[in-house]
Amino acid sequence: MLRLIKADLYRLFQSKSFYLIVVAIVGMAGVVLSVHFFPAIGPNEATYNWVVEIKDKAWNAKIAFQGALATYPFLIYLFIVFFIMSSGYEFSQKCYKNTLTSGVSRTTFCLAKNSVQLLMVTLGTAIYFGSIFILSYFNYDMTNINIGALINDMFVAGFCLALGVSFIFSIANIILIITTSNVIATVFIVLCPLFIPIIRLNVGWDWMKYFDFVSLAQSMAFYELSGKALVPYIVANSVLIICSTIISITVIKRKEF
């Protein structure tokens, strides 16, 4: 499995697309800080007033972090490149058959793909929050900011959100294995963050909050959800990723290529 992971990471790090995505992530962090970009997904009047108020305030590193959380859901559309280059590439080029017939088990194949995607999403998330912190450090007054606590909050929040995105990617892997269509899997990734909050709000299924990373990011930003309150989300997404990986393994073992 390590050999497959190293091969995928090598291909990613040797690609110009990877570095373009890194530049885009850093650029997005710069936009958040320069224009005080603070979006709200489906805000009510109270939330809207809060957004207007915070945009007009003098920003500091803490508010910048809240802005980073509010804008985090947009990153999934950049992270799609990681999905395509790790899993989608092999299916679009049909070279996954060579991998599976070269002595690599299907279980190892699925575990490696999900591991690479989790690593890349985590790396992208770290680059984003790291850029926010560095730019904030040089642009804002850090006198009254507990830097250690802020870094800890960034670490926990980033890991929690990265798991949420990775869960969506793990479901997309199942779709990719079933359909062998890179397009269908990619469309699923694009639409999933949009429809999950809508379904949850309209149907009233509160349990969906555990894999609704869009609403989770908004809750972190607006209501400062953090610390121990995030543990159930981390546990739930970890379990969901494990379950979806098991499903991927089961599906690929029964599929004839």
Description of the molecule:
The structure is a single chain. The protein is mainly α and 257 residues long. The protein has one domain (2-254). It contains eleven helices and no strands. It has helices at 2-13, 16-35, 45-56, 61-71, 76-92, 96-100, 106-139, 147-179, 182-203, 213-223, 231-254. Helix 2 (16-35) runs parallel beside helix 7 (106-139) and helix 7 packs antiparallel against helix 11 (231-254). The two termini are 21 Å apart.
Question: Key features?
Answer:
about 260 residues; mainly alpha
Summarize the structure.
It comes from Enterococcus silesiacus. This protein is mainly α and 257 residues long.
Secondary structure blueprint with pairings:
Elements: H1 2-13, H2 16-35, H3 45-56, H4 61-71, H5 76-92, H6 96-100, H7 106-139, H8 147-179, H9 182-203, H10 213-223, H11 231-254
